[in-house]
Amino acid sequence: MKDKYYLGVDIGSISTKGVIIDEEDNIIASDYLWTEGNPIGAVQKLINSLYEQVKDKDINVVCVGTTGSARYLIGKILDAGVVKNEITAHAIGTMNKVPDVRTIIEIGGQDSKIILIDKNVVVDYNMNTICAAGTGAFLSSQAKRLGVNIEDFGSIALTSKNSPKLSARCSVFAESDLVHKLQMGYKKEDVIRGLCDAIVSNYLNNVAKGKKLYSPIVFQGGVSKNIGVKKAFEEQLETEVTVINDGHLMGALGIAILAKKSKIEKPFSFQIKDIKFKTIGSECNGCSNNCEIVNVYREDKIIDRYGNKCDNGLKV
């Protein structure tokens, strides 16, 4: 009998992540790519990439789990056995790597979140999805404005000796503040360091407002790769902050582990690259709610509808 493997997919607005794990939760294949406003196309590319990594091993994927903003859509396309929110998935994935973690700080491309854990149970969380200020998208735009490669942003920040205070509560105000500081004579590295400090202050005063952050603290998401922001967190929290090498994959890892634990087994094929999927929006007239419905098609055959708030809507 073939060994069993599990696929986890985390579909976000900016990036799409995937892992394949074995029965000991070891990651045997992974990838991270941009969603580019097309979650279906991104997942097809992801599955093909994962297949290329394991095709010589003839592995048997027995269950798929999906999480992230497009989890329901992609869950249907991949016939997922488990579909869970990203809070649960990130907590499970992070605890797999840091079993005694108490606080998870995540800053992604367009949102940020905090997850508080006590005795391996999520006891509190908060998310900021209203404004992109202080996220990866915000940092990328500021790096471009300053003519700096985003990959070098953190290392440049650490060379600063005189960082100014900047506002990062609003991306528009932050940009004008940045220009003003440059006009005052601050060096580019000082402004970059000021941006890192401002992102952390913004996070702690908004996303983490009123919450006690206990150690061990794990920092993840794309922004965790920025050593300038990591350093700013450690200075403002006055404690060590851990960044996991695979921190950007924790949602995908967590949902893969949940798929394994579910004991739900379904046949899975990697051959979805050339299958045509599409979604068409419609309005349900079953009641006065007039819900917006997402109709999912596979090769022009409808395979799912979702979005209804009651049982009066059309069913597949």
Write up this protein.
The protein is of the alpha/beta class. The protein folds into three domains: 4-93 and 251-262, ATPase, nucleotide binding domain (Nucleotidyltransferase, domain 5); 100-243, 2-Layer Sandwich (Nucleotidyltransferase, domain 5), CATH 3.30.420; 277-306, no CATH class. Helix content is 34%, strand content 25%. The protein is built from nine helices and 13 strands. The protein has helices at residues 39-54, 71-77, 86-97, 136-146, 153-157, 171-183, 188-205, 227-237, 250-262; strands at 4-11, 15-21, 27-34, 60-68, 82-83, 103-107, 112-118, 121-128, 217-220, 241-242, 277-283, 292-298, 301-306. The strands form three sheets. Strands 3-2-1-4-5 form a five-stranded mixed beta sheet, sandwiched between helices. Strand 11 and strand 12 (292-298) form a beta hairpin. The longest helix is centred in the middle third of the chain and has 18 residues, at 188-205. The chain is globular. The model has no long low-confidence stretch (mean pLDDT 89).
Distance between the termini: 36 Å
Mean pLDDT: 89
CATH H level of the largest domain: which superfamily?
ATPase, nucleotide binding domain
Q: Total strand count, please?
A: 13
What's the CATH class of the largest domain, please? Alpha Beta
User: How would you classify the helix and strand content by structural class?
Assistant: alpha/beta
- CATH topology call of the largest domain: Nucleotidyltransferase, domain 5
Strand order of the largest sheet: 3-2-1-4-5
Q: What is the helix tally?
A: 9
Outline type: globular
Tally the structural domains. Answer: 3
Determine the strand fraction and express it as a percent band.
Answer: 25-35%
Helix content: 25-40%
User: How is the biggest beta sheet arranged?
Assistant: 5 strands, mixed
Corresponding CATH architecture of the largest domain:
2-Layer Sandwich
Low-confidence blocks of residues: none
- Evaluate the radius of gyration: 21 Å
- Give helix and strand order, one letter per element, not per position: EEEHEHEHEEEHHHHEHEHEEE
